[in-house]
Amino acid sequence: MKSDIKRVVLAYSGGLDTSVILKWLQTTYGCEVVTFTADLGQGEELGPARAKAEMMGVKQIYIEDLRETFVKDYVFPMFRANALYEGTYLLGTSIARPLIAKRQIEIARETGADAVCHGATGKGNDQVRFELAYYALEPGIKVIAPWREWDLTSRTRLIEFAEQNQIPVAKDKRGEAPFSVDANLLHTSSEGKALEDPWIEPEEYVYSRTVAPEAAPDQPTYVEIEFEKGDPIAVDGEALSPAALLARLNDLGGANGVGRLDLVENRFVGMKSRGIYETPGGTILHYAHRAIESLTLDRGAAHLKDEVMARYAELVYFGFWFSPEREMLQALIDRSQDRVAGTVRLKLYKGSVRVVGRKSPNSLYSLAHVTFEEDTVYDQRDAAGFIKLNALRLRLLNRQKQDR
Hints:
Rossmann fold; Argininosuccinate synthetase, chain A, domain 2; 5-stranded parallel sheet; 12 helices
């Protein structure tokens, strides 16, 4: 019952939707609202969120810089897995939700809140990601999802509600937004409205983090990334914190038009959607990590990782970050990274990323074994028995067919 809820922790951006939600919670539930705003590197000034929350009578306001935690404890573990949803998507939105949800639950405990609230719509994946995380961390928590409850079903209705309740609405927010945007340090995603027809190429104004590949410099940019235990630790010889390293690669990739993706994906809730993603630094990291693994991982380990990658990526996309199966896969993946160390050199040019060099103190690459020149470590005659043993089942099968 609504009357049972005395205090709720709201994931709050300070924008139109969450500001309306804040007031709606106050009026509909008659409860105290605690706001939580996370800086995950979305590039927005968070000061106005505090000012707006104060104006609306919020007494407990949490605004936290979680960029380092986001990259170190969420992005990097996922990149150790080389995770790609449906073969292409680097999961930029998906990986941010468990961190936000985890901190909401922690704040709910700190403030004695009865419930948590998010602003995700009833059609998308985020409602699932938030709520699976809430329940995994606090099974008895009450969850409020306004978009599944209220009758404010259009932007016009939202603006009318805001005006009726003296909630400031920026002039550029009064018209119908051409598409929705979600951003963090890993990526920017754009979807909806003008982007809904998958046949229509997105206009250049959709992209905010990368230059058009055609407009990128005519000379390539080279970058070297150093890894230790599967995680990047330095760029061009300079040691950097996780967030600073990803930001540096974002700048390099964005300037060279790297990391654009136009994708039609299968949402967890059952429908297909079209999204435009920009993941410049993440794209570079993905290529670099696979390159250093190619030197340092045994074939069996590398192939097993590839087999579980799709399952891992699906778990992240669907919102099962805090599930036992994701944690089990993470343990396997992290164990595989013990010897994944070294340096990768990449060439960025007009939207492309090419690996052009890799070296490692733990390299399993043996020039003595692969050389086309004469060697003393490999007897080519050994291959005959190897081939015959592997061909035995095929020969037996074919003979059976011939005898019929």
